[in-house]
Amino acid sequence: MKLLCGITLLTIAVAHYVYIPLPEQISEPWKLMLLDATFRGVVWMGDVAHWMGLSHSVRVINSAIIGFESLVPITNNEIRVEDTLFDGVHVRVYHPNGKKEGELRRAVVFMHGGGWALGAPKLGSYDSLCRQMVADLDAVVVTVDYRMVPDVHFPVPYEDCVKAAKHFLSVETLEKYSVDPERVAVCGDSAGGNLAAAVAQRIGTDDNISVKFKLQVLIYPVLQALDFNTASYQQNQNVPILYRKLMVRFWLEYLDADPDLIHSLLMNNHTALDQNHVSLTGSKVDWTTLLSKGMIKHFKPVVPVTGSPNILTEVPAFLDARAAPLLADEEVLRMVPRAFILTGEHDVLRDDGIMYARRLEQAGVSVTNDHFEDGFHGCLSVAFWPLHFSVGIRAMQNYIAWLEENL
Q1: Residue 84: what are its φ and ψ, rounded to 5°?
Q2: 242: which DSSP letter?
Q3: Which distant-in-sequence residues (6+ apart) come within 8 Å of 205 by Cβ?
Q4: CB 137 within 8 A of CB 404
Q5: What does the pLDDT read at residue 11?
Q6: Residue from 125, 72, 22 nearest 378 by CA
Q7: Which of 407, 379, 359 is CA-nearest to residue 190?
Q8: Is 145 a catalytic residue?
Q9: Is 377 a catalytic residue?
């Protein structure tokens, strides 16, 4: 009887830990709960290790992610890979098979997500995704293994991606890999979408670079850090796997800022009405005008009257378009390539992507916004074994199909 009671109590405790209320429309909620429970446990272990002085929390979390990703079987084994350096930056080049003499192929430069801190671009889901792009598009795919937090901070990951992109777009490198200079796209998911957007802006406005990207693909990108109370941040603040508080933590780590600022940022104290230096950027993140009424729903802006005047002075990168591409001026946006932006309804970053789509359209750039009503943050990364989320599979198929048609 005691054993039965113990098992019952343990079952109840596990169920209580795993279960969280989720929106009815979200894809495969029980699988998402199990994924989130695992991730929360890993984050907790990282925080404990950090508190005890054993290791930085990010290192613990990333070690667990790498361990899991290493279990994912390699797909499309026939595709040849080459690990090399582009201007000192580690990259992996995926080569399609069956090249004909003199044939030029299209290409994709891919930047992985993970809050600028996590991820294994040469393993697991990202490796599978790159191989799938090669197989479906018959394209050369380059994944950039940029340096990450906590070893480096902004602007190092951005600069790594710029250097790798410029190297690949050089005439010599394109010729080496038999790539058509008129058919190169830059892609990225989440923090990788941030880097891809910023790189597209840099390449587009650099007169010294003769070859430009034809397309940009931004998958649930993170694009601004001035408003952590957009409609999607408010609506999805407790929806896994990217909680609002965790996204703020990623920003603080990336910008090498005081982690204790998290509470001020969550209240938008850094963009209060008394912060005059944000007045010129306000319209660029004004979701009340950039979003449709259907997206805004019943949510209201959070704009404190008085805030914390030192935050933007101490962390000026909050206002830097290289870190927050949504803040770029319109003349910069006019120079970027046609865009595909994928967003999920149940993602705190939904409005970042939609606002950027609207600003690009206002600048005269053609945009396809592929919005998934059952989507959540990171769904593309769980399209593969062992989770096979249906929304992730559909998202991958849609964006690869768009590249097939437009690249």
Answers
A1: -150, -175
A2: S
A3: 332, 335
A4: yes
A5: 43
A6: 125
A7: 379
A8: no
A9: yes
Tokens coding 238? 């407790």
For residue 320, count other CB atoms closer than 10 A to its CB.
17
Side chain identity at residue 279, one-letter code: S
- 3-class DSSP state of 142: strand
Task: Output the six-digit token pair for 312.
Answer: 């933007």
CB 107 within 8 A of CB 139: yes
- Respond yes or no: is residue 347 known to be catalytic: yes
Contact (Cβ atoms closer than 8 angstroms) between residue 208 and residue 318: no
Instruction: Give the per-residue pLDDT at 93.
Output: 98
Tell me the C-alpha to C-alpha distance, in Å, between residue 291 and each of 52, 280, 333, 354, 361.
Answer: 44, 19, 18, 7, 13
pLDDT band with cut points at 50, 70 and 90 for residue 8: very low
Nearest 5°: the CA angle 287, 399, 35 is 75
From 27, 125, 128, 190, active-site residue:
190
Task: Yes or no: say if 146 and 254 are a contact pair by the CB < 8 Å rule.
Answer: no
Structure token digits, residue 177: 């890999």
Q: Which residue is catalytic, options 112, 153, 346, 377?
A: 377
φ/ψ of residue 211, rounded to 5? -95, 125
pLDDT, tens only, 158-212: 999 999 999 999 999 999 999 999 999 999 999 999 999 999 999 999 999 999 9
Show the tokens assigned to 240: 């896994």
Catalytic residue, candidates 347, 351, 370, 374: 347
Q: For residue 20, give the amino acid letter.
A: I
Token duo for residue 42: 């890993």
Q: Three-state DSSP class for 21? A: coil
Under 8 Å between Cβ of 218 and 196: yes
Predicted confidence band of residue 10 (pLDDT cuts 50, 70, 90): very low
